[in-house]
Amino acid sequence: MSKQSELQLENNLIKQLVGLGYQNVTVLDGDALVANLKHQLEQFNNCVFSDKEFEKILNHLEKGNVFEKSKTLRGRFQFENDKGEATYIRFFNSEVWTDNLFQVTNQITQEGTYKNRYDVTILINGLPLVQIELKRRGLEIKEAFNQINRYQKHSFWSNRGLFQYVQLFIISNGVNTKYLANNELQSVKQTFFWSDVHNKNIKELPDFTNAFLNPNHLGLMIAKYIVRNETHKILMVLRPYQYYAVEKLVAQVETTTDNAYIWHTTGSGKTLTSFKASQIIMDLPQVDKVLFVVDRKDLDYQTMNEFNSFKKDSVDVTKNTHNLVKQLASDSKLVLTTIQKLNNAISKEHYKKQLADLKSKRVVLIFDECHRSQFGETHKLITDYFTNSQLFGFTGTPIFADNASKNNLGKRTTKDLFGKCLHKYVITDAIEDGNVLKFGIEYIGRYKKKSNTLLDIDVEDIDKTEVFKDEKRLEKIADYIIKYHSTKTDNKHFSALFAVSNIKSLIKYYDIFKAKKIAGEHNLRIATIFSYGANEANEDAQDYLPDDELDVAAESELSYKSSHSREKLDEYIVDYNKMYNTGFSTKDSKLFEEYYKDISKRLKEREKKNFNDAKDRLDIVIVVNMMLTGFDAKKVNTLYVDKNLKQHGLIQAFSRTNRILGENKSQGNIVCFRNLKKDTDEAITLFSNKEANETIIMPPYEDIATKFDETLKALLTIAPTHKSVDNLVGEEQKLQFVQAFRRLLRAKNVLESYVDFDWQNLDIDEQTFENYKSEYLDIKDFVDEQRRTHKTSILNDVDFELELIHRDEINIVYILQLLSKIKVKDKTEAQKQKKAIIDLLGGNVKLRSKRELIEKFIEENLPHITDADSITDEFENYWKEEKVKALSKICEDEHLDQKQFNALIQSYTYNGQEPIRQDIFKCLDNRPSILKAREIGDRILTKMKTFIDVFITGMVG
Fold first, then answer.
1. For the segment 875-926, what is each residue's pLDDT rounded down to a tens digit?
2. 769, 757 contact by CB (below 8 A)
3. Run of H or E residues at 148
4. First to last CA, the chain
5. What is the pLDDT of residue 459?
6. In b/e form, how buried is each residue of 331-364, taking b as 16+ CB within 10 angstroms?
7. For the segment 108-155, what is each residue's pLDDT rounded down to a tens digit?
8. Across the beta sheet with 526-528, what order do the strands follow?
């Protein structure tokens, strides 16, 4: 049986869609697309448009980017018809989504920067709302993803930008099928399989088509389950488990008054699910108010921001109980608050009158992490107060009989308080789907007997509290973190949390790190935050007890009964203020709250591309319990642990590290300085299934190394030496090499996160690996040239995963540091070091464009510099001069106004949006003729991009 071709896959899909109720229509190009749009909008709105009227509609549709057009799609457009009458039309019916008109077409051709032909397009009311890209069986689905990214850049914006109305992309090779929202600069990790309600993935294209692309379901997804994130101006689409959870919650409200809960593992997007549930439930006519309740003060701000990011000003966080009462008594349908404020509002006598009307109204309460504060008196107080309420809980770690703690109300489970679980999505589901990462857990100390990083820190003596307090042990652990932090965090590209048992230990650790920094033993940026008592007793008057056995979510009051702890915290905040030029303190509650927010922001904003890593980086935050639950920052990839964790507390803490972010974050790193092996196994079993251990935890280093060797063996079969890559015949053989080396890169990426990583233990040395990498990059350069000249190649859609090649932040600052170490008096050694730097420039993707200029500086300027400390200043002056020369040359060659052209470059650099040709032409002395306009515009834009690549991109450390 021969392979199914891409054309066969396409034809079968269209035939299936027609069988589901789609109209098959022929739309060959942009003109036909516009003509079909006119006809479909007329039919959908039950009217006829003149050419003049339709031009007004097209002008309206043309405005804005993808994000703004998503609003236009769901809105109404008022215009004046030819008779002078006000006319309203719609582009999509979100209320009755089956009333929309569904069509399917294929092979639409559009020309923008390049001419592109799209595979299968789903038109709804004439607008292209779903684009499907197919690859033949045997090819990676990622190649279809890369093709979509190219279309977004090259042609979707052309022809009045109608393809910017695409809401969803579908990518498939027949065997695997995934969907994603329409956003620029996405990662393939933001693509999802659809599944059934039991989380069984539906991968085959025909099955996916029946389940997802049938008009009823697809219409519902576009109408209800695409979320506009106002903060980042992007579209987000719910994953299947989020969709099923919301549907079940809404049905529960519509059909019963019973409470219930959702079990979705930590890190699976609970806030988005709860927001969408809140949004739909608040629009139900039978519901008077929705309260979204968080139970930690430090979550109030984060959750509010996340809610408001989905819909601007959707919630106004209550500053105090008085404001909360005003909101509860107002017409506001959605209120976000903490459980403490809600408790105060319904408990205080003087608020009873204001809230009297609300007591019997239909109030839906949605609790964030419902296991935490619901097991005391508060739950009963709320249910007794709101006589017509319905409670829903979200949790990643439910309380079962096995992990329930006893209080004065007895042992109670999540089921006891919230009733049945409406939907489950456990940690094994999330890892299998790629929605969270596995954990790489290393136990450091005597427990780990076969390791080149063995430290004698007595982790086996888990019952000896005096061992944990021993300052020699704490210092050994600090030394270990200092030594291996760069390895764990991809050369400080990520941040870490350090969980310790109590405040006394925290203070000791911080002081040890601080002393070592002053002594010049490290340059880590370390901060800390913990709770403190307002009226603390003298520490000497009580026995200081560690809170190791306490739930991670509940701070131990015994830990804080010391005025010394607050004084130390203020001292540490002073350090923080000096490091970041801030002005926080515990002396003002608002300033202390802002301190927490600043730490949170500093960890979270590392995700942004324009984040100044050298200036604002925060490496480690030492905590007792804060930030170990409910805090999400994708750039946190490591948790150091020197405290006893168990059950839901352990999973919650570990899960701070395993958020998905790009190719070079392969796992969440857990470094345990206590023997938590048994507790870890028990927690994983409890919150997934009996066979979960191998799925959730990364295998030992030796197993990964064996896999690396197997991958290497496969590469050597294709290319026994790096030189033999040049002898590969045809694109099929080159494709095999690229895919094999890419697999080797991935394996190496995982290996490097282990502290045992050592090239000497592998079957390939580092230099040989670098040689293969150079061949890989050469093929990449060749493919890039083919793309530029628009030549067809099976390699065109291959992702070369360049970010996996260099884990180090090798940039201009890094190069300058190397230059400053060159011993200019020792000519032989200096020449050797210069060659090493030039070789590094050739291998580094980000610096290759700068190689010629840096090499010129090394050869012409460096010999005349006698003071190594002045190299940075000399280089900066040199770079500025070369930048001015390059800009002047472009403007002279192309007859451009330098001031205007420079402003255009600054705008492009700032917002990342490619300038339109009209703006480029404004910089010219004379506007080009129509015949030459495109050629000149493309040439100037190419020169602009090259200039930015050389002189601007990557210049900040």
1. 878 888 888 899 999 999 988 988 888 888 877 765 556 787 788 888 888 8
2. no
3. helix 142-154
4. 55
5. 46
6. eebbbbbbbbbbbbbbeeeebeeebeebeeebbb
7. 888 777 777 889 999 999 999 999 999 887 777 878 888 887 777 777
8. 439-443, 668-672, 636-642, 495-500, 620-623, 526-528
Q: Report the relative pairing of strands 86-90 and 102-106 from DSSP bridges.
A: unpaired
In b/e form, how buried is each residue of 239-259, taking b as 16+ CB within 10 angstroms? bbbbbbbbbbbbebbeeeeeb
Q: Give me the chain's average pLDDT, please.
A: 80
The segment(s) of the chain belonging to CATH 3.40.50.300 are 240-425, 439-692
Distance from C-alpha of 879 to C-alpha of 254, rounded to nearest angstrom: 66
| 639 sits in which H/E element | strand 636-642
Q: Are 918 and 941 in contact (CB under 8 A)?
A: no
Q: Which CATH superfamily is domain 240-425 in?
A: P-loop containing nucleotide triphosphate hydrolases (3.40.50.300)
Q: What is the pLDDT of residue 395?
A: 87
Distance CA 427, CA 187 (A): 22
Helix (H) or strand (E) holding 409: none
Q: In the block, which residue shows the tokens 């309740």?
A: 293
Cα 855 to Cα 304: distance, rounded to the nearest angstrom: 51
CATH class held by domain 702-804: mainly alpha
Quote the Cα angle for 589-593-595, to 5°: 115
State how far Cα 581 lies from the chain centre.
Answer: 28
H or E element that contains 940: helix 930-951
- Measured CA angle at 435 (ends 616, 128), to 5 deg: 95
Q: Which amino acid is at 462?
A: I
**439-692: CATH number:** 3.40.50.300
CA distances from 936 to 116, 235, 470, 893, 926 (A): 21, 35, 72, 12, 12
- Secondary structure of residue 411 in the 3-state scheme: strand
For helices 297-310 and 270-282, angle between their N-to-C axes, nearest 10 degrees: 70
Cα 213 from Cα 219, distance rounded (Å): 9
Q: What is the pTM of this model?
A: 0.70
What is the structure's pLDDT at 546? 28
What are the contacts of 517-520 at 24+ separation with CB within 8 A?
none
Using the Cα atoms of residue 126, residue 129, residue 135 and residue 136 in order, give the sign of their dihedral: negative
What's the token pair of residue 339? 């459980």
- Distance CA(906)–CA(896), nearest Å, equals 15
Residue 716 token pair: 């050597």
Q: Is the pLDDT of residue 296 over 70?
A: no
Residues 604-645: pLDDT tens digits? 877 765 555 567 889 999 999 888 887 888 899 999 999 999
Structure tokens at 58: 């097209």
For range 845-867, the mean pLDDT: 74
Residues of the chain with CATH 1.20.58.910: 702-804
| Residues forming beta bridges with residue 714, ordered by sequence position | none
Which CATH class, in words, describes the domain spanning 6-227? Answer: alpha beta
Beta carbons of 531 and 623 less than 8 angstroms apart: no
Cα–Cα dist 242/240, whole Å: 5
Predicted pLDDT at 841: 63
What lies within 8 Å, CB to CB, of 370 at 6+ separation is 261, 393, 394, 395, 414, 417, 418
> pLDDT tens across 515-574, in order?
999 999 998 999 999 886 543 333 222 222 223 323 333 333 333 344 578 889 999 999
Output the CA–CA distances (angstroms, integers) from residue 129 to 162, 592, 596, 837, in the order listed: 9, 47, 42, 49
CA atoms in the 13 A half-sphere facing the CB of 836: 12
The length of the chain in residues reads 957
- Scan for tokens 């990426």, then name that residue: 749
Q: Where are the beta strands (DSSP E) in 136-281?
A: 168-172, 177-181, 194-195, 201-202, 226-229, 234-237, 260-264
